[in-house]
Amino acid sequence: AETQLIEKEKFATLGRISGGIAHEIRNPLNAIKTSAYYLLNARSPSPAKHEEHLQRIDRQVTVIDSAVTALSDLARLPEPNATAVSIPDIVEAILRDKQLPRSIEVRKDFPTDLPGAWVDEKQLPIVLKNLIRNARDAMPDGGVLELAAQVDDQQVQVLVTDTGVGMTAEVVERLCEPFFSTKARGMGLGMAITMAILQKNHGTMQVDSTVGQGTRFTLSLPIGGDDR
Ligand code: ADP
User: Fold this and answer.
1) Ligand 1 pocket, 181 CB below 6 A?
2) How far apart are the C-alpha atoms of 106 and 145, rounded to whole Å?
3) With 6 labelled, which of 39, 44, 67, 177 sits at a CA distance of 20 to 30 A?
4) What is the rounded end-to-end Cα distance, in angstroms, of the chain?
5) Where does residue 113 rank: exposed (0-12), middle (13-18), buried (19+ CB within 10 A)?
């Protein structure tokens, strides 16, 4: 597997974002239009049919609403307020919060003298949550999720490794593109938000992935001192 640095150039261009929004919104709009057409034109819709179409409209409006909300969250990401943040504490909080299936074995490897990372304490958890969620999704039949951290070259490195499905080079290339997803119900904004947060917090991300074997994300974050 080849290690690739996710560079700014690979991150959202306006055209790609627009294409993504158009795609994400057109499908639900079409469904709404079809149902509205039915309700307006059906000669004598049964109450059940009537109800079904109203429900569909309501559901599809919710889909559009969550796409727009996620996108405006991305656009209005607040300026980070950096403090020394404990990576193991964040990881513990996420694992407590988010039950992973039993088929996924979690391994943790954090040195006791790990310094804090100098990042926004509200934003970094979003990054780690997204990486852990994707690792879980990549291992539908179970596997090992390894969460580790170390100091390397004046940075705190955080490693999130799964033994899941892995990614092709094409998927790696488009990983952080807003609305890019290979999942049936994926919105494709998790990694775009992750990358936006990392950039604002002076962090970088590398990915190393092999189809059928798994994926490792390596974050490099500024060091925040010894007070954890
Ligand atoms: P979503 O999870 O909604 O699809 P993301 O932006 O979080 O959106 O991820 C984009 C795509 O990147 C996913 O659909 C998947 O194809 C790929 N991906 C991300 N993380 C992993 C991983 N750990 N293993 C395999 N594929 C991944």
Assistant:
1) yes
2) 5
3) 67
4) 35
5) exposed
Distances (CA, A) of 125 to 4, 93, 210: 23, 9, 26
Distance CA 132, CA 113 (A): 24
Instruction: Evaluate whether 190 touches 71 at the Cβ level (below 8 Å).
Output: no
- pLDDT 10s digits, 16-61: 667 777 778 888 999 999 999 999 998 887 899 999 999 999 999 9
Question: Cβ(217) to ligand 1 under 6 A?
Answer: no
Q: Is 27 in the pocket of ligand 1 (CB under 6 A)?
A: no
* C-alpha to C-alpha distance for 158 and 163, rounded to whole angstroms: 17
Q: Which helix (H) or strand (E) holds 71?
A: helix 47-75
Q: Which atom of ligand 1 lies nearest, measured to the CA of 135? A: 23
Nearest CA to ligand 1 atom 23: 135
pTM: 0.82
Check if the beta carbon of residue 116 is closer than 8 Å to that of residue 141: no
pLDDT digits (tens, 9 = 90+) for 104-137: 999 999 999 999 999 999 999 999 999 999 999 9
Q: Report the nearest-CA residue for atom 21 of ligand 1.
A: 134
Q: DSSP H helical segments within 139-207, as ranges?
A: 169-174, 190-200
- Is the CB of 171 inside a 6 Å radius of any atom of ligand 1? yes
Query: Is 155 a pocket residue for ligand 1 (Cβ < 6 Å)?
Result: no
- C-alpha 30/C-alpha 27 separation (Å) is 5
